[in-house]
Each structure stands twice: as structure tokens, then as C-alpha cells.
């Protein structure tokens, strides 16, 4: 019987906190300059025009020092769409990106495991024409 009483009180506590959580989450959504879109990518509010832009494209443009062309894709190497570190991003053409994912899926189907990161990085640059942004940062610093 005590467990039922504990469950009931924890449920009451959850209900009591709910309005405060909803208010906090809605305020954070309104005043934050970053949010996730429906596909899991991070949207960042642009300071110049106030529009939402994909953060990984903004990071890539900052490292490359130019605007990305409409046919260029920013690939997340580890597959996590909210991980926008320069070491996790690679800029490539849309066709190269599609070819890379066909190769990646074929390797998984054949061996039932994904290729190692080193192999992925080598294939991205040599075979599919990608530019690793982590390397660009190191070249600028060095």
C-alpha cells in the first residue's frame, strides 16, 4: 500500500510542476537563438536579417570564408545532425554526397558494420571530393 501512496504523490508532484515546465520551455523557445527543426538539424537565428539558418551551413561558411553554393552539402561525419563541430563536418557536392551514402550503406550490408572513421575520412576526400573542415581549421592555425 505504501508504494501506491508514493506513486500517487509522485504523480501529483509531476502534475504540479507541469505548468512551470511548459512556461519555461515556451519562453526558452521564444528567446533562444538556436532550436532544432523537424529533421533534427540545429537552426540558428541570423544576426544580419533575423531569419533562421542551418547552423552547420553557417559554420562551414565561416571556416571556408565564403557562401556555400546551392549544390554544396555539409555532411555530418558521425551522423549526428546536432554535432556541428568543424572536425565533424565535410563540404561536398550533392552528387558526391549521394554516392558516398550509397558506398556507406553497401559496406554496412556487406560486413554488417560501418567502416572505421579513418576509412570514411579517406573515402570522403579522395573518392567523393569532400573538403574536411577540421583540416581547414588546422591549416589556418598552422
Helix and strand element order: HEEEHEEHHEH
Number of helices: 5
Largest sheet: 3 strands, antiparallel
Radius of gyration: 21 Å
Count of domains: 2
Total strands: the figure is 6
Shape: flat
What is the CATH third-level topology name of the largest domain? Homing Intron 3 (I-Ppo) Encoded Endonuclease, Chain A
Residues in helix, %: 40-55%
The low-confidence runs, each spanning 5 or more residues with pLDDT under 50, are none
CATH class of the largest domain: Alpha Beta
GO molecular function, one term: endonuclease activity
Organism: Bdellovibrio reynosensis
Keywords: Endonuclease, Hydrolase, Membrane, Nuclease, Transmembrane, Transmembrane helix
Pfam family, one: HNH_3
Give a structural overview.
Pfam families: HNH_3. This is HNH endonuclease. Keywords: Endonuclease, Hydrolase, Membrane, Nuclease, Transmembrane, Transmembrane helix. Residues 56-98 form the HNH nuclease domain. GO terms for molecular function: endonuclease activity. The chain has helices spanning 2-31, 55-64, 94-111, 117-127, 133-141, and strands at residues 34-36, 42-45, 52-54, 72-76, 89-93, 131-132. A hairpin with a 5-residue loop joins strand 1 and strand 2 (42-45). The strands form 2 sheets. It has a 3-stranded antiparallel β-sheet with strand order 1-2-3. Strands 4-5-6 form a 3-stranded antiparallel β-sheet, with helices on both faces. It has 2 domains: 1-30, no CATH class; 34-141, Homing Intron 3 (I-Ppo) Encoded Endonuclease, Chain A (Alpha-Beta Complex). It is flat, with a radius of gyration of 21 Å. It is α+β, with helices and mostly antiparallel strands and 142 residues long. The protein has 5 helices and 6 strands; from the N terminus they run αβββαββααβα.
